[in-house]
């Protein structure tokens, strides 16, 4: 008889008294009973009183519909997440039609400009080009901006294209000019315009491509195009070059003129020394400044300690450059000066990556694709 306690029945939740199946109240304390299994197997979730009605237990064999309300009735207590799924599904359906992007009406050039100077819409912090997220708040960069960045950087991977970087430009430093066309006229008029520089001619120079190489041509400008010397270059008399802020011209030694006058008189002067060449300083407006004759086969220019010194020139190195003569030929050597020595090109010149050019008062650096 002791084993009968393990049969299916009802256990009172107040006094823990076992009652047979179907009892509506506890036989000991008259407490309303809920449906339980045996003492060893208790149901995980207490159902409401409705399932113990005789009508509910009498119909499962004929119709499967009555068991379905039980999960619906129990779901608010056992799984409160379930009722919230309906609004979530509605929200997903609403997102299938995205809002119109603020960048939708911009041209490709405008998008690239936005990409280069993009500001996070959440925290107003600048986002460097190529970054996918804001470094301050983590907001994602819009897809349109990312695509524009890819196009901008990818364009420079074309080996036939180059750009000019303005190194010294009187407030315009850092500007870059992309040489994407076949020809690019530089001057006060043209594709690359410097209207504020009085030393730039209306049509000063032309950058163009020939056989995949970048070439610069002087278009008959008054002041010419100067390219930075790498190591040592050959020069000839009448060539001009820049060192610091000084402009020089190489001149051959003049013909002897120390003979007698028709009346037999000699011109009185300082002692004369043999000199293979001389340098002439050219002042603004074309006037002639200092003229220095080389005492030997070379002449050195610098800020101090040379044959020709310019202690007040901030762009001149201590030992800046040297001009040498050998067997009637002349060479110009840059002595690793900080700001470089520049020689005027004749007609045109093929350019390489890292070349520096002076056009008027503008210093430009050439950047070619090196991938």
Structure description:
Helices cover 13% and strands 28% of the residues. The chain has helices at residues 54-58, 69-78, 85-94, 108-116, 143-155; strands at residues 9-11, 18-20, 162-168, 176-179, 183-187, 192-193, 205-210, 213-218, 225-228, 232-235, 240-243, 246-252, 277-282, 288-293, 298-302, 308-309, 321-326, 329-334, 341-344, 348-350, 356-359, 362-368. A ten-stranded antiparallel sheet has the order 4-3-22-21-9-19-11-12-13-14, with no helix packed on it. A five-stranded mixed sheet has the order 6-5-7-8-20, with no helix packed on it. The termini are far apart.
Number of DSSP E strands: 22
Distance between the first and last residues' Cα:
94 Å
Q: How many helical elements?
A: 5
Given as residue ranges, the uncertain stretches (5+ residues, pLDDT < 50) are 1-5, 36-44, 54-63, 71-83
Judging from the principal axes of the Cα atoms, what is the shape? rod-shaped
Rg on CA atoms, Å: 46 Å
The residue-averaged pLDDT reads 79
Assembly form of the protein: single chain
Main β sheet profile: 10 strands, antiparallel
**Which bin fits the share of residues in helices?**
10-25%
| N-to-C series of helices and strands | EEHHHHHEEEEEEEEEEEEEEEEEEEE
Structural class: alpha+beta
Q: What share of the residues does DSSP label as strand, in percent?
A: 25-35%
Please state how the strands of the largest beta sheet are arranged side by side.
4-3-22-21-9-19-11-12-13-14
């Amino acid at each position: 008889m002791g084993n009968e306690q393990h049969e299916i029945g009802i256990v009172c939740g107040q006094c823990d008294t076992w009652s047979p199946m179907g009892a509506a109240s506890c036989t000991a304390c008259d407490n309303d009973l809920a449906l339980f299994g045996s003492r060893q197997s208790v149901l995980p979730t207490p159902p409401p009183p409705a399932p113990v009605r005789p009508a509910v237990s009498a119909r499962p064999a004929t119709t499967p519909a009555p068991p379905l309300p039980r999960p619906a009735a129990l779901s608010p207590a056992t799984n409160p997440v379930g009722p919230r799924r309906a609004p979530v599904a509605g929200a997903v359906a609403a997102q299938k039609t995205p809002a119109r992007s603020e960048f939708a009406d911009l041209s490709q050039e405008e998008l690239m400009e936005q990409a280069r100077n993009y500001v996070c819409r959440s925290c107003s912090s600048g986002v460097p080009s190529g970054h996918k997220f804001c470094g301050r708040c983590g907001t994602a960069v819009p897809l349109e901006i990312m695509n524009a960045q890819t196009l901008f950087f990818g364009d420079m991977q074309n080996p036939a294209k180059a750009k000019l970087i303005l190194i010294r430009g009187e407030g315009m430093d850092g500007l870059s000019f992309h040489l994407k066309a076949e020809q690019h006229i530089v001057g006060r008029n043209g594709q690359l315009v410097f209207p504020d520089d009085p030393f730039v001619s209306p049509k000063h120079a032309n950058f163009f491509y020939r056989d995949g190489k970048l070439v610069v041509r002087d278009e008959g400008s008054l002041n010419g195009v100067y390219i930075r010397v790498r190591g040592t270059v050959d020069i000839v008399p009448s060539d001009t070059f820049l060192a610091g802020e000084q402009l020089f011209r190489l001149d051959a030694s003049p013909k002897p003129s120390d003979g007698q006058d028709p009346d037999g008189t000699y011109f009185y002067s300082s002692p004369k020394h043999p000199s293979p060449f001389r340098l002439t300083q050219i002042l603004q407006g074309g006037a002639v400044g200092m003229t220095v004759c080389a005492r030997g086969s070379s002449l050195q220019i610098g800020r101090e300690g040379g044959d020709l010194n310019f202690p007040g020139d901030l762009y001149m190195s201590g030992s800046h450059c040297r001009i040498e003569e050998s067997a009637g030929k002349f060479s110009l050597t840059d002595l690793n000066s900080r700001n470089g020595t520049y020689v005027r090109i004749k007609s045109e010149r093929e350019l390489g990556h890292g070349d520096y050019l002076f056009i008027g008062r503008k210093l430009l650096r050439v950047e070619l694709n090196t991938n």
